[in-house]
Amino acid sequence: MDTASALRRLDPATYLSHFVAKGVRPDGRALDHSRPWTHRTGTLAGGAAGSAIVQLGRTRVLCRAVLRAGQPPASAPDSGDVDIQIVTPPLCGRHHGVRGGRKTTEGLALEALAKQALVRSGFVDCSGLSLSKGRLAWQVGLECVCLSDAGNLADAALGAAVLALKDARIPPHDVEDGVVFLRDGGAEGDGMDEEEAEGAALPLSGAALHATTLGVFRGHLLNDPSLEELPLLDAAVTVVTDDDGNVCAVHKAGGAAVGPDLLGGASTSRGARRGDTKPKPKPEPKPKPKA
User: Fold this and answer.
1) Which of 261, 219, 210 lies closest to 31 in space, CA to CA?
2) Which one of 161, 188, 261, 284 is most buried, counting C-beta atoms within 10 A?
């Protein structure tokens, strides 16, 4: 074992500080750079209204959106609701272990952050999910499963959730006496064109959401901290912003106090992934053949 490898194992904080002092990270990134980001939508067929998989470095999250018709909440009888679950099974990393299905405090906080960003910020217009006031509304369930956790699960999970929502479609349906009847879009002579049979998009705001996690290490800001860097940080903050830089949600899990400059850093550090969660323009409908 060479000196660098020994220092990395025995004193990882000192090892990291040697790099940070020179403006780089052990993986070669600049302090304000995130890892490569890729995504794909429509990854799950059947049983999902929409789906997406996101990869941030070696962190991978798969998310599916499912729709169920149910009774709206008493506090908002003319609105639907969105629920999100983030699952970190043992297969996503040895550090998660086996907890018998119990969620960690951090996992619950991450779900609360996603709920705040998606619903309370107005990204999802829950009033547009109503089917029959006080009786029936769409309930959107988001199920995010971490396939591999190499650090910064928050950014990957929220990105996958946003993309799954944008990919989701409400199936053609009719409502009669408080019951939802789905139309058969594949039947001939049903009178539906291709776009109508595909279903309607969920009522989402036009703005995109961007999650950025920043770590503080000995006075330096590290964008998109890796799994190796996370336990060495003095503090870590996840900030969710829209296209205009407005802060929609913030989450900080313990650690040292941080100033408001960290929130400003989130808006300037998300450039590498900016626009990745924007909806793609729909293709022009094909002209129907003349009879």
Assistant:
1) 219
2) 161
